[in-house]
Specification:
The complex is a heterodimer of chains A (about 110) and B (about 110).
Chain A lengths: L4 E3 L2 E4 L5 E6 L6 E7 L6 E7 L2 E5 L7 E4 L6 E5 L8 E8 L7 E2 L3 E5 L1
Parallel strand pairs in A: 2-11
Antiparallel strand pairs in A: 1-3, 3-8, 4-5, 4-9, 5-6, 7-8, 9-10, 9-11
Chain B lengths: L3 E3 L4 E4 L4 E7 L4 E9 L6 E6 L3 E5 L2 E6 L4 E6 L8 E9 L4 E3 L3 E6 L1
Parallel strand pairs in B: 2-11
Antiparallel strand pairs in B: 1-3, 3-8, 4-5, 4-9, 6-7, 7-8, 9-10, 9-11
The chains are: A mainly beta (about 110), B mainly beta (about 110).
């Protein structure tokens, strides 16, 4: 597998439920990013990791959101007590070094009903 | 004012025409410039990456950067219906996150 992999591709959940998404970056990429994209908008930054360290979090990442990257490999993004406003595409990207290009996965589309 | 501005379109062109896309940005610390193509309900696909002023060509695609004007462009030659998509510019400062424009929707008509 040579690309960024995200799972699941689609998730429908009821308001108030917790959801968790997984991202597997390109092998040996040490930088991993999470973005959120709503219809008709560009991706908005949520957070990023260098290896296992979470270096920056956006103000968009409320206390209901948490991201982890144990052992600097795959990452998970959890949303607790989902709200209808959380409905969006959640994108993961990775890059090999600080200032190289970033490659995106196919995203996880979340619908909160 | 957003850090990266991009006309949302839609931009409609006939097949074979040149597609011209652009973004403006406000932060002079931005040094790395990328263009992505995104089909509906898919993840962004990297098209071009550059970090210097001037032109970079790859097949039918040419990326142009003018750091003095804080203006970047993407040109698509000999456009095809399969080029119909949303095009996103993404810019970053050294060691920092990518900041995206809102995307321009392009429609290439056969």
């Amino acid at each position: 597998d040579t690309g960024v992999s995200q799972d699941p591709r689609h998730k429908i959940t009821k308001r108030g439920q917790n959801v968790t998404f997984r991202c597997d970056p390109i092998s040996e990429h040490n930088r991993l990013y999470w973005y959120r994209q709503t219809l008709g908008q560009g991706p908005e930054f949520l957070t990023y990791f260098q290896n296992e360290a979470q270096l920056e979090k956006s103000r968009l990442l409320s206390d209901r959101f948490s991201a982890e990257r144990p052992k600097g490999s795959f990452s998970t993004l959890e949303i607790q007590r989902t709200e209808q406003g959380d409905s969006a595409m959640y994108l993961c990207a990775s890059s090999s070094e600080v200032n190289t290009e970033a490659f995106f996965g196919q995203g996880t589309r979340l619908t909160v009903v | 004012q957003k850090e990266v501005e991009q006309d949302p379109g839609p931009l409609s062109v006939p097949e074979g025409a040149i597609v011209s896309l652009n973004c403006t940005y406000s932060n002079s610390a931005f040094q790395y410039f990328m263009w992505y193509r995104q089909y509906s309900r898919k993840g962004p696909e990297l098209l071009m990456y550059t970090y210097s002023s001037g032109n970079k060509e790859d097949g039918r695609f040419t990326a142009q950067v003018d750091k003095s004007s804080k203006y970047i462009s993407l040109f698509i030659r000999d456009s095809q219906p399969s080029d119909s998509a949303t095009y996103l510019c993404a810019i970053k400062a050294a060691g920092n996150k990518l900041t995206f424009g809102g995307g321009t929707r392009v429609l290439v008509k056969p």
